[in-house]
Write a structure and sequence with these properties.
The chain folds into two domains: about 5-45, Arc Repressor Mutant, subunit A (Orthogonal Bundle), CATH 1.10.10; about 50-185, Vaccinia Virus protein VP39 (Rossmann fold), CATH 3.40.50. It has six helices and seven strands, in the order αααβαβββαβαββ. The chain has helices spanning about 5-25, 30-45, 50-60, 75-80, 125-135, 155-165; strands at about 70, 85-90, 100, 110-120, 135-150, 165-175, 180-185. α1 packs across α2 (about 30-45). The chain has about 210 residues and is an alpha/beta fold. Strands 3-2-1-4-5-7-6 form a seven-stranded mixed sheet, sandwiched between helices. This is Ribosomal RNA-processing protein 8. InterPro entries: RRP8, RRP8_N, SAM-dependent_MTases_sf. S-adenosyl-L-methionine-dependent methyltransferase that specifically methylates the N(1) position of adenine in helix 25.1 in 25S rRNA. Required both for ribosomal 40S and 60S subunits biogenesis. Required for efficient pre-rRNA cleavage at site A2. Its EC number is 2.1.1.-.
């Protein structure tokens, strides 16, 4: 790799980190920043030991979940790999993706058999998002959450909090030093949002 390309890669990474922090803080970004974000995101995934979305895709290929919602879908890789996927994102990159707030999805009650959140729970308190998820997914339906492991202070506490929202852990699909992919099953409805706090994703200053 040439020196120029190395500097370009570093610049892509720096732009990605800045824009990613803005998105975690729910700040608006310009269309050109969205393109820079996805370029930087793709570059970052090449450095990961495992891309969580690939683990989710491989898992879903072995199941028959029916209708699936991919919330915070990014480039909608799930819909490109699995049938019957509806893609949602606050920053849609094309017309096939439905613009949404993660706490207020435009869909019917219990419309989905499975709801996926792959690195998309960007708010510090995701209780409202999980209440909306409970509304979206059918009884005994599944919820798959991929998250940066360091954002979850205590896994057992997280599982307990999810249980108060009507979701019981059914298994861990993948886990390494960076990420964890957890599958839950909806066992009951919930009528209010409990506090479920995740650490803010902040990058080290370079």
């Amino acid at each position: 790799m040439s020196c120029i390309r190395k500097y370009e890669k570093r610049l892509e990474g720096a732009k990605f980190r800045i824009i990613n922090e803005l998105m975690y803080k729910n700040q608006e970004i310009a269309p050109e920043q969205l393109l820079e974000y996805h370029i930087g995101y793709r570059s970052q995934t090449h450095k990961w030991p495992v891309n969580p979305i690939n683990a989710i895709i491989e898992h879903l290929k072995t199941k028959e979940y029916g209708k699936i919602a991919d919330v915070g879908c990014g480039e909608a890789l799930l819909a490109q790999s699995i049938p019957n996927v509806c893609s949602y994102d606050y920053y849609p990159i094309n017309e096939s993706i439905i613009k949404c707030d993660i706490n207020e999805i435009k869909c019917g009650d219990e419309e989905y058999d499975c709801v996926v959140y792959c690195l998309s729970l960007m708010k510090n308190n995701v209780g409202a998002a999980m209440k909306e998820c409970n509304r979206m997914v059918k009884k005994n339906g599944n919820v798959i959450i991929a998250e940066v492991l360091s954002r979850i202070t205590n896994l057992n506490e997280f599982y307990t909090q999810m249980l108060t929202m009507g979701f019981k852990k059914s298994g861990v699909l993948a886990k390494n030093d960076f990420f964890i992919v957890i599958e839950f099953v909806k066992i009951k409805e919930c009528d209010r949002a409990a506090d479920i706090f995740l650490k803010e994703c902040v990058y080290k200053k370079r």
